[in-house]
Design goal:
The structure holds two protein chains of two kinds. Chain A is an all-alpha fold. Chain A has helices at 2-5, 7-30, 61-83, 85-112. Chain A has four helices and no strands. The chains are: A mainly alpha, B mainly alpha. The interface between A and B is medium-sized, with 12 and 17 residues.
């Protein structure tokens, strides 16, 4: 039945949750806890923490975030296509070129309206 | 059994590309307009010059797409054997039939009028983005009408709505516009999520995303035990209906409508009220009839009353709420927004009629007729709302006072459109309503669900609606002209009004001119393709197999969307 096809996904889900939760539970149980002011500080790559956590981020970041997502997704699609390039043939090649052309239009647009310039 | 998605490794045939050419042209033209703006015109020309050139370019593109779409309808351009043989069109995701061919002409026709209206004023700095998004929302709209498969339908729906969210907020320097866009986005995203969740339940119950195959699987599940629990069917149905309810602005999902209609630039409002509603209703009919036809009434395996009953209630509530709320409005756009909720109610009566009528194709033709004529009337009335907003700087009904004396032609056209919206014979709105209500009364030979009560509610509502439309008519002809009326009408508004009024009168005097082709479209809209016969060649790599997993050959000869069984209530 259909359900059995999704059994593996369900098992994977359970395993993934367990993988994340189990260490936390384990630490709760076995680790000794003796908090000091130094231990309670925010860890930031070993540097001294500066200022508040809740600061304003510049709105301009969102364009970089968007562009990052666009090219991230591009890589996600390009990689499996490149890996099975030979067996996919011309159809997939043309499709991929159309996809890349669309992304290029997006990049050209972002460039032309000056979104890539940091002000 | 599950149909698995396969990668098509053969090129779609040239006739398939040809069939999609209007859509492809519009998608490309959007890019072209955008690039023309950002690479050539922006920073070099004045805003008004830029707007003029971009508008003209867009109009040319939209007219070319319209020409292609009309050309496809020409007898002999697409051989009928190609039309009927092609259930594998683009891997079975897009309907390649007379309904798609005809309805895309209507959709692109709306686009042409909206572009003509947009060219009249410069209300945004982002001219290139504006026209590009109009084109892309039209692409989503047409693909939504043509979709034969849930994922295609959902992607097309989102292409349309996301473009419209941005269009709503594009008016430069208008806080109301941004507010409307935000409200629309938040409500819309929630509704889309519910809709997608519902589709995933349907997929979970049937193992396929194709409308026809879902329909067949659900028909089988009436006799075969165990394909899905009762509660899951009911939940899936409710979620899908919630998604469509938002898109067509029917009552429990209507809260966005007044604010968005009022805040969005008026041409965009016209586009939402005509194009988006048109596509959403057609997609709704297709999904409910082709895929979820079995769920039209409770057949004992569905823990819900079935969509006929649910939609009847939604229709009654939408009509009543929309009309009563419109009664008190002084604001022209808001009044039209509430009246649009009411008209969604009338159209839902038509959708219910398709579910119960013994003449399904006639009922479908009636709904399509109403959608076309209502879309035109809405475009015309919102053209006047746009004129009020941009040239008079107001949106009050009182500012239309005395228009009939100072500007007789536009006022007369507006009067015709308003009378058609009330449903006064012999205008198109009357025949649309009459045909839909007749089909709702025509409850089939099985003596099943008589929708008499619903039709009575609808008729009472038509009477109520006359009050607020007549208030506008009174302002036009019985009041002393105010100072605002000196403003002249731009040609874009005049054209839209005249086209809408002439069509309303013409299709009212001769309804068969529109009803006959739309009835034909209704037939092919409700005819789902037979199971794939794997007649397509496979390339040397042999990747494409038949799309159906060959465990269950007994899929033929099952009527999709069967008549509701004789459970009289």
């Amino acid at each position: 039945m259909i359900l059995s096809r999704y059994l593996f996904i369900g098992m994977l889900l359970l395993f993934a949750i367990g993988f994340a939760v189990a260490p936390l539970v384990l630490i709760r149980i076995i680790a000794p806890r003796r908090p000091t002011p130094h231990k309670g500080q925010t860890v930031e790559c070993g540097l001294e923490t500066q200022g508040e956590t809740w600061i304003r981020f510049r709105l301009q970041y969102y364009i970089f975030a968007l562009l990052f997502v666009v090219f991230d997704v591009e890589t996600v699609f390009l990689y499996p296509w490149a890996a099975s390039y030979v067996s996919l043939g011309w159809y997939a090649f043309v499709e991929m070129m159309v996809f890349l052309a669309m992304l290029t239009v997006g990049l050209v647009y972002a460039w032309a309206i000056g979104a890539l310039k940091w002000q | 059994m599950p149909t698995v998605p396969v990668i098509p490794s053969v090129w779609p045939s040239s006739s398939e590309w040809f069939f999609l050419s209007p859509v492809l042209l519009m998608a490309f033209w959007g890019v072209l307009v955008l690039m023309l703006d950002v690479l050539v015109l922006r920073n070099r020309t004045l805003l008004s010059t830029r707007a003029k050139w971009l508008g003209l370019t867009s109009l040319v593109g939209a007219l070319a797409a319209l020409g292609l779409a009309v050309g496809l309808l020409w007898p002999g351009v697409l051989a009928t054997d190609v039309l009927s043989a092609n259930e594998e069109f683009f891997n079975g995701t897009i309907a390649f039939d007379a309904a798609s061919a005809l309805l895309q002409v209507v959709g692109i026709g709306f686009l042409v009028l909206v572009i003509g209206l947009s060219m009249t004023w410069v209300f945004t700095n982002e001219q290139g983005e504006y026209y590009a998004l109009l084109f892309w929302s039209a692409v989503g709209m047409i693909l939504m009408i043509e979709a034969e498969e849930f994922m295609t339908l959902f992607v097309a729906l989102e292409t349309m709505t996301i473009s419209i969210y941005i269009l709503t907020g594009l008016e430069t320097g208008s806080k109301r516009s941004s507010e409307a866009a935000l409200k629309y986005l938040i409500y819309g995203s929630a509704a889309s999520a519910l809709f997608l969740f519902g589709l995933s339940w349907v997929y979970g119950l049937t193992g396929t995303t194709r409308l026809a195959a879902v329909g067949r699987a659900l028909v089988e599940s009436r006799t075969v035990e165990g394909i899905g629990g009762q509660w899951t069917s009911g939940l899936a149905l409710l979620l899908v209906l919630a998604g469509f309810g938002f898109k067509v602005a029917s009552v429990p999902f209507h809260q966005w409508t007044p604010d968005v209609y009022e805040g969005a630039p008026a041409p965009v409002t016209a586009w939402i009220a005509s194009g988006s509603k048109f596509a959403s209703f057609i997609a709704m009919i297709k999904v409910l009839m082709l895929a979820l036809g079995t769920w039209s009434v409770d057949t004992g395996h569905l823990q819900s009353p079935g969509w006929v009953v649910i939609l009847s209630i939604l229709a009654a509530v939408s009509m009543t709420y929309g009309n009563l709320a419109a009664l008190g409005q002084q604001n022209f756009k808001r009044m039209l927004a509430y009246s649009s909720i009411a008209h969604s109610g009338y159209l839902l009566v038509g959708v219910v009629a398709i579910g119960v009528s013994s003449q399904r194709t006639e009922a479908t033709g009636a709904v399509l007729y109403y959608l076309c004529t209502y879309g035109l009337a809405t475009l015309g009335t919102f053209a006047v709302a746009a004129w009020l907003a941009h040239d008079v700087g107001s949106d009050q009904i009182d500012d239309l006072n005395g228009l009939g004396f100072r500007r007789p032609v536009p006022a007369f056209c507006l009067a015709i459109l308003l009378l058609s919206l009330i449903g006064v014979p012999p205008l198109a709105g009357f025949f649309g309503k009459m045909l839909m209500f007749m089909e709702a009364l025509n409850a089939g030979g099985n003596g099943g669900i008589a929708l008499t009560w619903l039709v009575v509610v609808a008729l009472l509502n038509s009477v109520v609606s006359a009050f607020y439309y007549v208030r506008v008519l009174k302002a036009l002809y019985l009041r002393q002209p105010g100072p605002a009326i000196g403003k002249s009408f731009p040609s874009g508004v005049i054209w839209t009004l005249v086209i809408a009024a002439v069509a309303t009168v013409g299709f009212g005097l001769n309804p068969t001119a529109l009803l006959d082709p739309l009835g034909g479209a209704g037939i092919s809209l409700l005819t789902s393709p037979e199971p794939a016969s794997s007649g397509r060649p496979v390339d040397s790599n042999g990747i494409t197999q038949s799309a159906t997993v060959p465990e269950n050959p007994a899929q033929t000869q099952v009527p999709v969307a069967p008549a509701p069984s004789a459970s009289a209530r």
